[in-house]
């Protein structure tokens, strides 16, 4: 071992501090597994004086400007842990790649917006752009899709990709508590942000799904085409109704290759109790996929957190560190496919997807309501698989819960619009998609 | 793309034919993901005339001798799918590495016996030795341990690694059938070999565990130190008793780093109903591990079969193919650690392991039996957590089933030896370890 791989680290929040912890405690292990010493030599963060888990920052050269750090001759690898889709993260990653430096990032927002461009830049420069930590924390889904299962035509991939949402849904189900109540607790515990929109609105899941989709199907990153629906409208009653019908509600990111184009969607989903995905509780994440040769594969682990994310960053750094011993600038194309082969697949419009649906109506307790609802559904070719009337509410309004057979999304939306115009309906109807066919 | 990566393929059984299928159907995908064409150019098998899934073998140069193929100038990568721990597989892999050729193999027996020596040879030659397909079929556990989670100190790893055993145990539980009955069916269906000893005796699991252990803990491969016990003594009564107590019986491979050394063991195990590992049914495999930074991770998928195994082989081949575009002979150390750092950890003797135990005694239906049994257990510091007497048997013999608190294996063995000498005991006592503490 004669050379040290020199890291420039931008961002000293939770993950950055976790990476310093890992490097401090595991230097021998890292050297044994790469044949090279790996060391942070320069850092950049917003506040030079804040305590960072007791680490002595004076050991590292300080940069005020992440772009200057990224392009510095003093580093071999730029580790971007600042976050944010825009500058300075964007400018810094671009500067690093243009300077011919390998980049490791945990920044899903940045890559969801600029991943294709950065993949091209990295390829042109002949350097690695690794981002395992950007998707599902410590779960090795990026490397699995990019390398291990690269010989497969992936048919579908879906997962629980946001720990905050899964924590909230799990708590609601386990403790019979309302969404707002559990959200407030999650915020107090630090599992949810003060402004939780990004998580509970499904946007974080969509960023991760955009990357998973590109890796799975060999396409450019296409965040704009993802249908996004969050969990803020899921009620405790929905969760109880689902349980009575044998389902659990999860926020899923789903991508499916169909004959009509690629489906990419993020939404709350009823999944069968007892299925692997239904059993993923709390802050854990899981990704399940189906490849034409490998069949079904599931990966499960911690989707966030200081240590799990630092583990993923370090795995990416070590892949680059092994090049020192090999004497080679080897890298896997950032998005799995060589950039010149990245496809743009047709997008299947959300209106055209076919699913089973859970429908919840609130109606006045008058005779004939169900007949009118069923009549409208029938006219839109939506047939009912089962029906429950879970509980009577105060003031004469009653909930009606229906499970449909396979129906087209556009038909369901049209039927609901028409049903909501009925004088007997006392509150807006809602629907939740059911995934009983994901393999 | 100007260069073709030339594969020499030795062994045209199920997996070899699956690889030809994959190459035939996915050549565009492989080129897009590696930047290089990948093609089999030469083959070697036992019988030149047998039909191999309709593939036209005349397209490939034929070798009668796998060693000659391995060292041939006509190939870049030697793909060893012959199987067997000895020659010719051993000689062929050695010849390939010595000739400076990358090797991809699915041969767990070969690597369990000679993995450390081959890892050294590959490192000295500066070539890759990849073996994803040797462990848990299509599940990317080798790459996950070797690369993705390389920054972790792994604390434990355990898994269901043999589909034949898991199929038999699942069928026994689901259909209430005897071991021998289900085994005969599995043999008829091709899930079990005519001589099933290798699978049901736990030896196949041990081979895989030996490789997982080396990867997880940075050690030389140490098959000799693995305690191996198969499933042939598991009765339907054991499965029913376990179910009544809230457990499922699985054949696990388990490796745990303890203060007293490394535990490496293969044995039937009671795992709690509802745990992820208990839900792995049929021919599926799963590996669960705990890394100090990443926390718990589980991988699940098909552990065997033509297509899933071909997927794993292809992933390994594609990792090497990417070197063509990079212009680099990059590789990960075969066993995760650079050979000069591979450790030999002290082995924790099986007698010293501490576990909960399921104990089954067959006793004559006379007063005082339970008191005598409990007395002996107490003298060996084994305390009873619960007891059931599941059913009366013919002839006055009754089964007694006990669940213990934590006890030392040596004490359990000594107590059982003593108990079996009691005149009131009508059949040999048996114990099965319980894993309720694996994370």
- Structural class, judged by helices and strands of chain A? alpha/beta
- Oligomeric state as shown: homodimer
Full CATH superfamily name of the largest domain in chain A = NAD(P)-binding Rossmann-like Domain
CATH topology of the largest domain in chain A: Rossmann fold
Could you tell me how far the N terminus lies from the C terminus of chain A, measured between alpha carbons in angstroms?
Answer: 47 Å
**Count of DSSP E strands of chain A?**
17
Which spans of chain A have pLDDT < 50 for at least 5 consecutive residues?
none
The chain-level mean pLDDT of chain A equals: 93
What does this protein look like?
The structure is a homodimer of 439-residue chains. Chain A is α/β, with parallel strands linked by helices and 439 residues long. The first copy, chain A, has three domains: 4-138 and 305-339, Rossmann fold (3-Layer(aba) Sandwich), CATH 3.40.50; 143-301, 2-Layer Sandwich (Dihydrodipicolinate Reductase, domain 2), CATH 3.30.360.10; 350-434, 2-Layer Sandwich (Alpha-Beta Plaits). Chain A is built from 14 helices and 17 strands. In chain A, the strands form two sheets. In chain A, strands 7, 8, 9, 10, 11, 12, 13, 14, 15, 16 and 17 form an eleven-stranded mixed beta sheet that branches. In chain A, strand 9 (247-258) and strand 10 (261-272) form a beta hairpin. In chain A, helix 1 (14-25) crosses helix 12 (306-326), helix 5 runs parallel beside helix 10 and helix 6 (141-148) packs parallel to helix 10. The longest helix of chain A has 21 residues, at 306-326. The radius of gyration of chain A is 24 Å and the shape is elongated. The mean pLDDT of chain A is 93.
């Amino acid at each position: 071992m004669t050379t040290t791989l020199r890291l420039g680290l931008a961002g000293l929040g939770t993950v950055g501090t976790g990476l310093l912890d890992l490097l401090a405690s595991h230097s021998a292990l890292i050297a044994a597994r790469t044949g090279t010493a790996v060391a942070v030599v320069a850092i950049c963060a917003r506040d030079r004086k804040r305590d960072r888990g007791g680490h002595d920052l004076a050991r590292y050269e300080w940069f005020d400007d992440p772009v200057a750090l990224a392009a510095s001759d003093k580093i071999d690898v730029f580790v971007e842990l600042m976050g944010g889709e825009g500058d300075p993260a964007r400018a810094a990653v671009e500067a690093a790649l243009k300077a011919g430096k390998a980049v490791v990032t945990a920044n899903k927002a940045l890559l969801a917006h600029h991943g294709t461009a950065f993949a091209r830049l990295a390829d042109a420069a002949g350097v690695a752009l690794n981002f395992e930590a950007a998707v599902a924390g410590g779960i090795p889904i990026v490397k699995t899709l990019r390398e291990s299962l690269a010989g497969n035509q992936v048919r579908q991939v879906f997962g629980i990709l946001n720990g905050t949402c899964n924590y909230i849904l799990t708590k609601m189900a386990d403790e019979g508590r309302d969404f707002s109540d559990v959200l407030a607790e999650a915020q107090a515990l630090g599992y949810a942000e003060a402004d939780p929109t990004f998580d509970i609105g499904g946007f974080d899941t969509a960023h991760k799904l955009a990357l998973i989709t590109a890796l799975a199907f060999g396409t450019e990153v296409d965040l704009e085409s993802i249908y996004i629906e969050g969990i803020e409208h899921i009620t405790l009653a929905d969760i109880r109704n689902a349980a009575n019908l044998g389902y659990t509600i999860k926020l899923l990111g789903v991508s499916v290759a169909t004959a009509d184009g690629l489906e990419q969607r993020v939404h709350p989903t009823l999944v069968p109790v007892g299925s692997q995905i239904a059993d993923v509780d709390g802050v854990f994440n899981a990704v399940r996929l189906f490849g034409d040769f490998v069949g079904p594969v599931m990966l499960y682990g911690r989707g966030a957190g200081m240590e799990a994310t630092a583990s993923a960053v370090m795995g990416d750094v070590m892949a680059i560190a092994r090049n020192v011993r090999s004497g080679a600038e080897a890298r896997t194309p950032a998005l799995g496919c060589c950039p010149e082969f990245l496809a743009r697949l047709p997008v299947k419009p959300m209106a055209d997807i076919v699913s089973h649906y859970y429908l919840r109506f609130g109606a006045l307790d008058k005779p004939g309501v169900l007949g009118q609802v069923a009549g409208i559904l029938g006219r839109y070719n939506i047939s009912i698989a089962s029906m429950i009337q879970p509980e009577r509410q105060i003031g004469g309004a009653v909930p009606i819960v229906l499970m449909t057979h396979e129906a087209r999304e556009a038909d369901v939306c049209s039927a609901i619009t028409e049903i909501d115009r009925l004088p007997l309906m006392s509150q807006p109807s809602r629907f939740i998609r059911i995934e009983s066919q994901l393999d």
